[in-house]
Design a protein that fits this description.
alpha+beta
Length: 232
């Protein structure tokens, strides 16, 4: 009887030990899972921080909630003054190609009431090519020396499009005597359209063939605007 009792006690101790081992194993697995989860969050935060430092993200500026630039583009210059700010981004893939962001949604850069009203009316319609009367209105929406170039522009094409769930003005133009073309997206900031901002891609004919009709256009058209459900 004494031996059987000792055997029973030993068996019970073994079972309890096995149970504690299983519990410890489950605990270790849970801790490891939490560590992986937290590590994933940390990695994503670090990636977003690095992207912001490299200029790969435009966030919470003007009417933009978030715009991811194409791979390889880094900030190459810019300026900020009370009435406007701009940043330029370039890629090592081509020294003639760049993306610019200009924010005119600042005091001193308001559009005149009649221009803002006309701009708002044009954007309220379905996307279309602009007629001459509409072109005369938006000519005052597009800033002088557009994109920071003083040269004479030509071959201007103007239309409205829906980009990221918001109607915008699109202008395509080139410059006299230069192998340079720009594709610009001019968006209103605020419901009254008194302020605006624009994003543009510019480059040579070869740049457009190799880079625009692909990732560059897809990324710019993937912009998320503030205040839109499609941009949340």
């Amino acid at each position: 009887m004494g031996e059987r009792r000792r055997d029973q006690v030993d068996d019970q101790a073994d079972r309890q030990g096995d149970g504690r081992g299983e519990d410890a194993g489950r605990g270790d697995g849970l801790i490891a899972g939490m560590a992986d989860l937290l590590g994933g969050f940390a990695r994503r935060r670090e990636q977003r921080r690095e992207a912001r430092e490299q200029g790969l993200l435009i966030e919470n500026r003007g009417g933009i909630e978030k715009l991811e630039l194409p791979r390889g583009f880094t900030r190459s210059g810019g300026m900020s003054v009370p009435s406007f700010e701009f940043d330029e981004y370039q890629s090592p893939a081509s020294n003639t190609m760049k993306i610019g962001y200009w924010n005119w949604a600042k005091p001193g850069s308001e559009l005149p009431d009649e221009v803002a009203a006309g701009f708002k009316t044009i954007l309220a319609e379905k996307p279309h090519d602009l007629n001459q009367e509409e072109i005369d209105i938006v000519a005052r929406v597009v800033p002088g020396g557009v994109y920071g170039h003083a040269g004479q522009i030509e071959n201007i094409r103007l239309r409205t499009e829906e980009v990221g769930g918001k109607n915008v003005l699109v202008m395509i133009n080139s410059w006299v005597g230069e192998d340079r073309t720009a594709y610009g997206i001019f968006a209103p900031v605020g419901e009254d359209c008194r302020y605006r901002e624009h994003i543009h891609f510019e480059g040579s004919e070869q740049d457009f063939k190799q880079h625009w009709e692909g990732e560059a256009k897809r990324q710019l058209y993937g912009v998320k605007w503030r205040g839109l459900e499609t941009g949340k």
